[in-house]
């Protein structure tokens, strides 16, 4: 099964993708994670992307389409993948269709996670992740079971993203409404869109997604 998780920054795409990875054995393809890895590694793509990401703007279509084209060709994607943060523009959506068609694959479903704007800023600014395994947490909504210790790997080191500050989050939201929100209509018209209530607690959102996926 190949699916897209669509929603604004902080909607819970990464959180729900991790659930789907552990429950259904799908692969999570997060362009945000891939770009952050490129920035960390200091590659040419990373150098180009860093300032754009820090400003909360979108990295160029050509760069992210190139990254995804290469990634979905890897053997671990053959049984299905979750696109988290891609596509983000109509151009990326068109490129994805072409890529999938070339490889004889198709898109099964697009899940839109709907969340009120005022909640998003709080979610993003309270977020942190395990520095070792990348498990996601939140200052209030999703604390580790033992304070300061990652539930998944036991590490005691955590990091916060450079673009998770209130000002950059607002720019990211603007980019979402300008460039990404039109994809909701695009996928609705194709009969692929299902919406879930991302204001509900994490477990309830997971349940709604399970219901959509069957
Ligand atoms: P990216 O990494 O994709 O960031 P984003 O879309 O802004 O999404 P986030 O990761 O911030 O949010 P999320 O929906 O995954 O929420 P999460 O589950 O963490 O992109 C970063 C940048 O890279 C972009 O700005 C751009 O520059 C560039 N980029 C990436 N892809 C690109 C593309 N395709 N084209 C161009 N540029 C691209 O949840 C947030 C917090 O809320 C967590 O702490 C979580 O615990 C908590 N939470 C989650 N769900 C709930 C719930 N139901 N109730 C309460 N709390 C919850
Ligand atoms: Zn961990």
TrEMBL record:
Alphabetical list of PROSITE patterns matching this protein: ADENYLATE_KINASE
Molecular function terms from GO: AMP kinase activity; ATP binding; zinc ion binding
Domain Adenylate kinase active site lid: 127-163
InterPro entries (UniProt xref): Adenyl_kin_sub (IPR006259), Adenylat/UMP-CMP_kin (IPR000850), Adenylat_kinase_CS (IPR033690), Adenylate_kinase_lid-dom (IPR007862), P-loop_NTPase (IPR027417)
EC number: 2.7.4.3
Residues holding AMP: 31, 36, 57-59, 85-88, 92, 161, 172
Positions with a binding annotation for ATP: 10-15, 127, 200
Subcellular location, record wording: Cytoplasm
Spans annotated as NMP: 30-59
One example of a Gene Ontology biological process annotation: AMP salvage
Family recorded in the similarity comment: Belongs to the adenylate kinase family.
Cross-referenced NCBIfam families: adk, PRK00279.1-2, PRK00279.1-3, PRK14527.1, PRK14532.1
Oligomer status and interactors: Monomer.
Described function: Catalyzes the reversible transfer of the terminal phosphate group between ATP and AMP. Plays an important role in cellular energy homeostasis and in adenine nucleotide metabolism.
Domain notes per entry: Consists of three domains, a large central CORE domain and two small peripheral domains, NMPbind and LID, which undergo movements during catalysis. The LID domain closes over the site of phosphoryl transfer upon ATP binding. Assembling and dissambling the active center during each catalytic cycle provides an effective means to prevent ATP hydrolysis. Some bacteria have evolved a zinc-coordinating structure that stabilizes the LID domain.
Name of protein: Adenylate kinase
Organism whose genome encodes this protein: Candidatus Filomicrobium marinum
Lineage of the organism: Bacteria, Pseudomonadati, Pseudomonadota, Alphaproteobacteria, Hyphomicrobiales
The gene coding this protein: adk
């Amino acid at each position: 099964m190949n699916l897209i998780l669509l929603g604004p920054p902080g909607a819970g795409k990464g959180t729900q993708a991790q659930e789907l990875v552990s429950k259904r054995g799908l692969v999570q393809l997060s362009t945000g994670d891939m770009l952050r890895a490129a920035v960390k590694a200091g590659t040419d793509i990373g150098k180009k992307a860093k300032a754009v990401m820090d400003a909360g703007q979108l990295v160029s279509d050509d760069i992210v389409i190139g990254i995804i084209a290469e990634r979905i060709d890897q053997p671990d994607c053959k049984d299905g993948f979750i696109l988290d943060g891609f596509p983000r523009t109509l151009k990326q959506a068109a490129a994805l269709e072409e890529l999938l068609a070339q490889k004889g694959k198709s898109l099964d479903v697009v899940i839109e996670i709907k969340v009120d704007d005022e909640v998003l800023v709080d979610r993003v600014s309270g977020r942190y992740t395990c520095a070792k395994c990348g498990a996601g947490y939140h200052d209030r909504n999703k604390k580790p079971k033992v304070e300061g210790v990652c539930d998944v790997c036991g590490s005691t080191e955590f990091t916060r993203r450079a673009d998770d500050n209130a000002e950059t989050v607002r720019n990211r939201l603007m980019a979402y409404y300008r460039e990404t929100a039109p994809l909701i209509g695009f996928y609705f018209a194709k009969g692929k869109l299902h919406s879930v209530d991302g204001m509900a607690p994490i477990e309830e959102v997971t349940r709604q997604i399970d219901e959509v996926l069957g």
